[in-house]
Automatic annotation (TrEMBL):
Organism: Mastacembelus armatus (zig-zag eel)
Top-rank lineage group of the source organism: Eukaryota
Basic and acidic residues composition-biased segments: 713-734
GO cellular component, one term: plasma membrane
Protein's name according to its UniProt entry: Sema domain, immunoglobulin domain (Ig), short basic domain, secreted, (semaphorin) 3Fa
Cellular localization per UniProt: Membrane; Secreted
Residues covered by the Ig-like domain: 568-653
Gene3D superfamilies: Immunoglobulins, ligand-binding face of the semaphorins, domain 2, YVTN repeat-like/Quinoprotein amine dehydrogenase
Length: 740
């Protein structure tokens, strides 16, 4: 059983070592004392990816993140020793926060980047010269260009911030004070007036966690352009449910603030609630109220991208995640709808029914509806006062079809980040979701339309990239990049060869990246016209797609036909794993001198698992031909066919005595017969980390042999010592990719 440890995993789940062996993941981690890697900027013009970490700025090749010598692509930017000492004395270095954590990298012009870091609780910014072309190998700080990062970068590295540099002006959602109590949406740099949200006004921002910022044009008129902010914040009322609410806010880029009221403060800031919930049969909705990440999927119409949001549950009643999709048409409808109004502290929020001043609050100056007003300072005072007291819309933004696209409940993980790819397949175009989790894995999910106007969600695969929570997924140019505190990994979008060589297996995988090319499952390309190419993402029907290729035993050519021996009274395990998470498995036994096949079920001495068949206390009557058959989409497939030969204990003892080996101990009957549930507990024990160490030791032992093991294999004790967690305060060794 120990030897079979690694088979107690789902077939579509690849652990870190298995993923690395496929050659489809390339890991980068800085072999110095640095942590908290964040992919902060993609530069497709220079083919670079800019990564910020503690005290370092990195420039990596987009196509090969380990291509160049690190010395030419890293900048060491620590804080001065005196500043670090002051930070430590203030009591802020509990977990090493007194460093310069890079939190902002924005393109300033064709040759320079604007970079900000936390500066040991004293934010600082500077310029980085990256050269005009990537071949120049220029990557250095501009001397004498350091300025304050207040309003651009947080003091505390644990607080999220978002930013966008547009037309030389930096917009940032950030906490701007040492204690982390003053949150604001700020505008700095550039020629326009420095702006911020109303300070300490909980109606505007109430302890927010900023998630994303993105410029989305409203029309062909540039003056209508708005910057959208996605965040979550505390509910404004005590006892309000849920306690956390997800928000989408927006501002006009050309906002100059008010003339008498809201001076140097946004006069076009509005926000609305984002709803992601599952309606119940009793009418009560289950809310996923904590926005974790947002992905903006571009379309041919730049004014109407598709917005994907990842949500989790804020309470402790249950653990769950969901993905909801929103349209800009629905978002604009809410912002053009009624404002939320409250007469006093003891009143309920209602839709404002009074007169709306002109121009409508939230309208951009000089735009489609206000061509004669060139600045918000020209707006009447009643418009500005209305904005200050009514920043929230009454209606909420609901997802497309009023329900989530993907839902996970009663699982031991949560989604943390998302990226989306539009994939062209033989039977249409599909959107593939890459969902990062807090256990370090990436799930590849496709949502298929059904004939009844519902959708069908399929998890194509799940791969373990890190052992810790994923902080970000970046998708660009058919490349996927995964970031965590431990490093960065370049992950291929597909692993077609793991589906096998059979046409049926490739078709049943329903992976839009892959198709059967007549010989094996390989990358699908719309430009290749092959008569033998087979792919069916929507239905996954191998009976129709692989007709003619499943004959002559093609569908069963991978069937294992082996002989397995067992000793009477012992326990044996017959292995059979589904090649797809959507298959159902059945076992049949055909005894010797019989034409009948009997289906095997879990009962008494026999336990069926996802990995095979466990038979305890073997009897001579257990011998025969065992066949494991999978069924998916009405397509039956024989995966394993083996003959189990049960040897009598007396025969085995006689052979051992003749060869001079010690005889088997006499079998002792036990009054205790474990139940199927207790067998499952045993299998659960075998999946513990300690068993992984035993398995590794045994694998080396079996491979090298007892006599030649010598110094080539570490003892189990040494393996355990190697796996012990190291305290970063006392150990400067960098974690290797295999340990992550």
């Amino acid at each position: 059983l120990v030897k079979s440890f690694f088979f107690f995993l789902h077939p579509f789940f690849l652990i870190f070592l298995e993923l690395r062996s496929t050659g489809t993941a390339h890991h980068f981690s800085f072999l110095l004392n640095s942590t908290d890697y964040r992919i902060l900027r993609m530069d497709e013009d220079h083919d670079r990816m800019y990564v910020g970490s503690k005290d370092y700025i990195l420039s990596l090749d987009l196509h090969d993140i380990n291509k160049e010598p690190l010395i030419v692509r890293k900048i060491h930017w620590p804080v001065a020793p005196q500043r670090k000492t002051e930070c430590v004395l203030s009591g802020k270095d509990t977990n090493g926060e007194c460093g310069n954590f890079i939190r902002l990298i924005e393109p300033w012009n064709r040759t320079h980047l604007y970079v900000c870091g936390t500066g040991a609780y004293n934010p600082i910014c500077t310029y980085v010269d990256r050269g005009r072309r990537s071949q120049e190998y220029i990557f250095r700080l501009e001397p004498g260009k350091v300025d304050s990062g207040k309003g651009k970068c947080p003091y505390d590295p644990k607080l999220n911030s978002v930013s966008a540099l547009i037309n030389g002006e930096l917009y940032a959602g950030v906490y701007i004070d040492f204690m982390g109590t003053d949150s604001a949406i700020f505008r700095t740099l550039g020629k326009q007036t420095a702006m911020r949200t109303d300070q300490y006004n909980s109606r505007w921002l109430n302890d927010p966690t900023f998630v994303h910022a993105h410029l989305i044009p409203d029309s062909a008129e540039k003056n209508d352009d708005k910057l959208y902010f996605f965040f979550r914040e505390k509910a404004s009322e005590m006892g309000q449910s849920p306690m956390t609410q997800s928000r989408i806010g927006r501002i006009c880029l050309n906002d100059d603030g008010g003339h008498c009221c809201l001076v140097n403060k946004w006069s076009t800031f509005l926000k609305a609630r984002l709803i992601c919930s599952v309606p119940g049969a009793d009418g009560i909705e289950t809310h996923f109220d904590e926005l974790r990440d947002v992905y903006i999927q571009p379309t041919q119409d730049t004014k109407n991208p598709v917005i994907y949001g990842v949500f989790s549950v804020s309470g402790s009643v249950f653990k769950g995640s969901a993905v909801c999709v929103y349209s800009m048409a629905d978002i604009r409808m809410v912002f053009n709808g009624p404002f939320a109004h409250k007469e006093g502290p003891n009143y309920q929020w209602v839709a404002y029914t009074g007169k709306i001043p002109y121009p409508r609050p939230g309208t951009c100056p000089g735009g489609t509806f206000t061509p004669n007003m060139k600045s918000t300072k020209d707006y009447p005072d009643e418009v500005i006062n209305f904005m200050r007291n009514h920043p929230t819309m009454y209606n909420a933004v609901y997802p497309v079809h009023k329900r989530p696209l993907v839902v996970r409940t009663n699982v031991d993980y949560e989604f943390t980040t998302i990226a989306v790819d539009q994939v062209a397949a033989a039977d249409g175009s599909y959107e593939v979701l890459f969902l990062g989790t807090d256990r370090g894995t990436v799930q590849k999910v496709i949502v298929l339309p059904r004939d009844d106007l519902q959708t069908e969600e399929l998890v194509l695969e799940e791969v373990e990239v890190f052992k810790v929570s994923l902080s970000i997924l970046f998708y660009t140019r058919q490349q996927l990049y995964v970031g965590s505190v431990l490093g960065v990994t370049h992950l291929a979008l597909h692993r077609c060869d793991v589906y096998g060589e059979a046409c049926a297996d490739c078709c049943l995988a329903r992976d839009p990246y892959c198709a059967w090319d007549g010989k094996s499952c390989s990358r699908y390309s719309a430009s290749q016209k092959r008569r033998s190419r087979r792919q069916d993402v929507k239905y996954g029907n191998p009976i129709r797609q692989c007709r003619g290729y499943n004959s002559n035993g093609e569908s069963n050519k991978n069937t294992l036909e082996t002989v397995q021996y067992g000793v009477e009274g012992s326990t044996t395990f017959l292995e059979c794993q589904a090649r797809s998470p959507h298959m159902s498995l059945k076992w049949h036994l055909q005894k010797e001198n019989s034409d009948r096949r009997k289906e095997i079920r879990s009962e008494g001495r026999i336990l069926k698992t996802d990995q095979g068949l466990l038979i305890r206390s073997l009897q001579s009557s257990d011998g025969g031909i065992y066949q494991c058959t999978s069924t998916e989409k009405n397509f039956k497939h024989t995966l394993v066919k083996l003959q189990l030969v049960v040897l009598s204990s007396r025969t085995v003892n006689n052979v051992l005595v003749e060869t001079g080996s010690p005889a088997l101990p006499p079998l002792q009957t036990s009054a205790w017969t474990p139940s199927a549930g207790q067998y499952k507990d045993l299998l659960n024990i075998l999946s513990q980390p300690e068993m992984g160490l035993i398995n590794q030791y045994c694998q080396d032992y079996w491979q090298l042999g007892e006599g030649s093991l010598g110094d080539k294999t570490k003892s189990l004790k040494e393996l355990k010592e190697q796996k012990k967690p190291r305290n970063r305060r006392h150990h400067d060794e960098q974690t290797t990719p295999a340990e992550t």
